[in-house]
Design a protein that fits this description.
440 residues, mainly beta, 14% helix, 37% strand
Length: 440
Amino acid sequence: MSAENMEVRWFRFQYHSVVHLYQEGQDKYEEQMLEYHGRTELLKDGITNGSVSLRIYQIQLSDHGQYTCFFQYSIFYEEAILELMVSVSGSDPHISVDGHQDGGIRVVCQSAGWHPEPEAQWKDHHGKLLSPASEKISKETNGLFQTQISIVITEDSNRNLSCSVRNPLVNQEKISTVFIAELFFPRVNPWMVALGVILALLALLIALASYCFWRQHRMKEMLRSDLARQKEEHREEKGKLFTELGLGLRRAQLYAVDVTLDPDTANHWLVLSEDRKHARYGDTRQDLPDNPERFDPFPCVLGTEQFMGGRRYWEVEVEDKTRWTLGVCRESLNRKVTPTPGNGCWVMWLRGGEYKAGTSTSPPIPVSVRPSRVGIFLDYEEGEVSFYNVTDGSHLFTFTDTFSGTLRPYFYPGHKAGGTNVAPLIICPVPAQVGGNLCP
């Protein structure tokens, strides 16, 4: 649909980190971040069809990363997230001889000024890959990468070589070749070879003699190590079987807690029940205090409970709803920006008939039975947030991260769209078989 009369906001990490803003039919530059002044253009040729492409001039390495395109019309909004990748092709490979090593010649290939990290390879004149002696990639002060790769060439090996450095993002490659003449290779003295063989035999005899003394102790250590590894493998297999049998959900339900909604964080458009167990999108905007804890403009609400450790589990009724988002977030989450994993949220949602977790670019979660109720399990110490389909007992998705600070339950009941999605989110007690009551 046409976006001529909408607010179109391109931003980076937070809602107010504006890259480009289109509002009231014209471009607004007052809120634009300083580093993007004079470098952006909103392409409006297709704006009547909803196309609002952003062009960025004079690309810099700092432009690399995530961008959000945000549409808003009246109280309705949508957003999309994309990843911009910046590519720089560096210098031609420089090949140099770095002296003798292991009876051959050490040849070094260097190239600088690449982004992202390049891939360097040695090849013979037939194009066959050769194993390098060493590889090193370092980051320069300007943010670009420098690569160094070496190889040891012997008199009997192929001396016609090429060094290629490739940018894996755009598949651009730069190649340099070298030929090592025979006169560069060191000549070996026969007496030195004989002395080397004798010394090697002596070392072997000493090693065999020493081996007899510590072999028994070594075998005991290996047996202990194998026993520990077998126990670990048995534990992992047991955990897999536990999940496959549907016991993962039952185990999570043992940690059920009573969760309620915090009215101080609820958006102006959300209506909470008296027992603070129901949340729905209302018909009118409520006159509520605009405190820092309150979500605005996003119609979200947090749970009252605060978790700083341990295991917690709760269930939410989502039957008949076409849009919802559930999970946990940090207490320190900025309530005025888009809630994403990068901002301190670990959430799963339903939108457009697809179930996803993480970001809008994540692949859909396969669901065989549509969940009428979703279970959320937080294991703080293990750094896991898991989602379960309580309807059929299946596991949906698990985030793995490292938590710090206070975490709280997160709820988004979804706004109305054409009269749909009017059903509320309902926080339910866990099923009776694990100590709770069924959701009314």
